[in-house]
Structure formats: C-alpha cells, structure tokens
Amino acid sequence: MRQINTRSLRWLGVLVPLSFWSLWIVVRTIVWGQPISWPATLLELLLISAGSTLFANWVAVNLERGEAEIRRRSEHLEALREAALALTTELDLAKVLQQVVDLSRSLVDARYGALAVFSPDDHTVEDFYTSGISGESHAMLASAPAGVGLLGALGDSDRPIRLGDIAADPRAAGFPAGHPPMRTLLGVPIASKGRRFGNLYLTDKRVVLPSGGAVDGEFTQEDQDLLAMFATQAAIAIENAQLYQENQQIAVLRERERIGMDLHDGVIQSIYAIGLLLDDARHRIDSAPQQSSDVIAAAIRGLNEVILDIRNYIQNLRPQRFQNRNVKQGLEELVRETRTDTLLSVDLVVDGQAATACSARQADEFLHVAQEA
Questions:
Q1: Per the count of CB atoms within 10 A, which of 41, 100, 103, 128 is most buried?
Q2: Contact indicator for 315, 307 with CB cutoff of 8 Å
Q3: Domain check: are 136 and 171 in the same one?
Q4: DSSP structure string for 203-271
C-alpha cells in the first residue's frame, strides 16, 4: 500500500490558501484600485496561515490515523490468511488442534491460549489443548480446567465473551489448583454448519509499543472480530481433519475385511485341501505306502506355503501361492497337483491371449477361485 506524504500535505494546506489570498490582495489593489492597509493585510495573512495550518494538520492527522488503521487491518488479514493456510496444510487431528490454539494466541497477541474440545455426544470437555504455558506450570496443574464458571458460560452460549478483569466477574470459577494467574479474557466458540467443536480461550492481552516492548492491555472489539473469523477457519480445518481421520479408519476396516476374505479364499481353503490329502493318505498308507508318502510330502509343502502366506498377510502383502504367475502357469500348477493328489486324468486347455490379458490382481483372484473349486 502506497503511503501518503502527510508532511507535504501539511505544507500544501498552508501554502495554497496563502497563495490564493495573496493573489486576491493583488487583484483587489491593482485591478480594483483599493488602497492597501498593511496592518490589516498582515492580519488577514496571519489568520489565513493559522486557520490553514490547523485545518491541514487536522486533515493530516486523520489521514495518518486512517492509514494506520488500514495498515493494521491489512496486517491482521494477512496474519489471518497465513494462519488459515497453516491449518489447511495439516491433516493430523491432534496437530491441527494444537495449531489452532498456537496460531490464535499469536494472532491477537495473547500470553496464554487454550482450546476446549467437546465430545460430539454431550458437549462435555473431551480434551484440552494449551499454548504459552511452560512445562513446569503445566505440570503444576492439578487437573485440566472443568467446564464450569466462565468456561461453562461460554459453553452454554454461541456468543463470544470478553472481559477486562476475570477476578471481578462473579462467574470466575472452575480453575484448578496451580493455574497461572490471568487477568483479561477473550473466548469464542468454534462451530461449523451447526456443529460445535469446542471453545477457544485467550487470556492476558499484550500491547506492543512502538519501542518494541509490550505491556498488559485489554482485548478489543477488533481482536474479538479477528478471533471469530479465525474460529470459523479453524472449524473447517478441524472438520477436514476429522473427515480425513474417519476415512483413514474406514480404509483400515476395509483392508481388514479384504485380508479376512483373502484368508478365507486362500489360506483356509488351502488348509482344508491339505486336510483332505492327509485323510486320504491315512486310509491308503497300508495299501499304497509310496503314494501316501508322496501325498504327505505334498501336504508338508502346502503347509509351508500356507505359513508363508500368513506371514505375507501380516506384512500386508499378497499370498505367495500364485505370485509372479499368470493364469496359464497357475492353472498348470493346479492341474499337476490334482493329478498327483487324486490320480485323476485332467486335461487343460487355456486361451493364451486371454490368459496374458489378465492383470496380476485379476490372475491372482481367478486362480484362487479355481483352487477353491
């Protein structure tokens, strides 16, 4: 934003009226022939100078105040924009909640900040995040503040609360033992689409001096409006983080369901088939010992593959049985096992083009269906 040069404006505010009045004196004297009275003329110029100086100074001061107000609001909006961007780049819910209280504290220059997170069921305080409190002070707290007193007053209302002196308010209660002393308070609700996520509390306003230092002050209406706008952005960020967390949980449940189905389709069917082989070998061990021995050896190999499959499932991998095999290779392996285990005559005809057209995932699912059949 381009800054107005109020010093030049002050000079112009004095020189322009003086120049016009001097021109008027010249016209009046030369053109109209009026006699000039120097004492009266000097008094006129003096009054014009004084009036112009006062008016120009009043205009310049108001312009400087307006400029400072615009600059301050621009800085606040820029800080609000940066805070909103910082929130949208994070999806972890716990980190978002901590960022909300940290950013809000720096946004309005407060010494302490706290965020009370509500339970979605009954609006009781489910969690409590703080900012500005040292580790030693936090350790001295007997417990987290309860939702009573001033905290409860905001919890029951959708309107912000702003106090210049906490101790003077009759609702000042609910602070646990070891709580640091606080004087000023600004609290706003965090809500979106009719859903209340919690309350944001800022205490002990710090006013930055031109010298660079800071003194205790009181929260202003501008601070309240700024924090209310930030609370709206925070509610959206919290909702996004919660949705992301829910999607992650749904993805985990779906993966568990997939693993369970794969276990049923692959591992359990393999164990069932091995059980049938061992049962057949048990009945033939006296009449056909060599054949029974081959069947038992095949069962041992099958159990080893099952163990490897279970290990791969635990590591979130695909079953080992048909890995790196296309449909034709997998079916040929199943046919060889069927001939060995059952002494049946099995013929296999595979369309080579169709077999190679399947993806690895499709081939794996198809071979498991064939194995189960």
A1: 100
A2: no
A3: yes
A4: EEEEEEPTTS-EEE----HHHHHHHHHHHHHHHHHHHHHHHHHHHHHHHHHHHHHHHHHHIIIIIIHHH
Are residue 269 and residue 322 in the same domain, yes or no?
A: yes
Q: Is 1 contained in some domain? A: no
Report the largest interatomic distance among the alpha carbons of the chain, rounded to a whole angstrom: 152
Instruction: Name which of 75, 148, 58 is nearest 109 in CA terms.
Output: 75
Segment 35-79, tens digit of pLDDT: 777 787 788 888 888 888 888 888 888 877 777 777 777 766 777
Distance between CA atoms of 301 and 244, rounded to whole angstroms?
44
Is the pTM here over 0.85, yes or no? Answer: no
Q: Residues 86-145: pLDDT tens digits?
A: 777 777 888 888 888 888 888 888 888 888 888 777 667 778 888 887 766 666 665 556
Number of structural domains (the chain) is 3
C-alpha 74 chain-centroid distance:
24
277 contacts: CB under 8 Å, gap ≥ 6: 295, 298, 299, 302, 341
Q: What is the Cα–Cα distance from 245 to 178, expressed in whole angstroms? A: 34
Q: What pLDDT, on the 0 to 100 scale, is given for residue 139?
A: 60
Instruction: Look at the block and give the residue holding tokens 């105040």.
Output: 65
Query: What domain range includes position 299?
Result: 254-372
- Residue 126 belongs to a domain: yes
Residue 164 contacts residue 184 (beta carbons within 8 Å): yes
Q: Are residues 267 and 122 in the same domain?
A: no
Six-digit token pair at 96? 């978002």
Domain of 181, CATH number, reads 3.30.450.40
- Under 8 Å between Cβ of 230 and 83: yes
Checking phi first, is residue 132 left (phi over 0); if not, alpha (psi -120 to 50) or beta?
Answer: left
